[in-house]
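Hey, can you fold this one?
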Amino acid sequence: MSPQFDALRADYARLWQAMKIHDNKIPVVDAIARRLISNKSRYQAVAEVTKVPWFVIAVIHEREASANFHCHLHNGDPLSARTHHVPAGRPPPPAQPPFTWEESAADALALDGLTKVGSWSVERSCYELELYNGFGYRRHGINSPYLWSFSNNYSSGKYVADGQWSSSAVDAQCGVMPLLQRMMVADPSIVFDGTPSELPAVVAADAQLAPATTTTTDATVHPVEWLQRSLNALGAKPELVIDGDYGPRTKRAVRWFQHISDLPDDGKAGPVTYAAIERRLAAATASAQAAQAEPAMAVR
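Sure. Predicted structure:
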């Protein structure tokens, strides 16, 4: 049974105020923050329907689907079909695939009860975001990396598969709370309800995002998780595990995609390959939506 919010409220407030992002992670976190903010209008459209703050939706999208708009917010499965990972079968009928990202996102937020929260203080946001992912980390005596990865509030320990725990594994994704902190630095309109909703005391009053550079690596602009989810959406076989590891299977899937796209199949995902993936994802989505909209031929 999940712990109650009131039992965790003070702990969340303490962790938020004490949080310090690791210095070497700040440029990565800031790059993600910029990317999420650049899609603010899409998140706001879902926020209007669900009453969940747009910035909360954005960080869930980053954790669950590497902010890939071709994937379900529930778990990162492709929008071309209902989810097949937990929670499976979403969105349910009468909705039919292919789904828009917005309708899938609204279903995910309603399914987990986020549409009923009402007031989003920083502590309540911590609670709901941890609940969204699960309280399993508390059984191992560590703070959830879903919330705190890339900060002093988390060092190691991770579920590497459903129900499979590793005390030495380290979460390679940024936690939602460091992301929210840096998004607040970049966009002063991001404000939590209630108090304390200010930036943590360890963040300087004149804090700014790390300067954007033209030498940002592909891994920062397009996380490996995004690449893996995109290749799955395009039909990679066998389906890739979303683990953020650019290992032999991911490299093999990249070579497969490059081969069918008439690109040099070196297994290296550079700007040309990423651009080709984006184009093919967009074309697949447009084709599927057009097929859904086409009226069925009359049977004589």
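The beta strands are 158-161, 164-166. Let me know if you want another pass with a different chain boundary.
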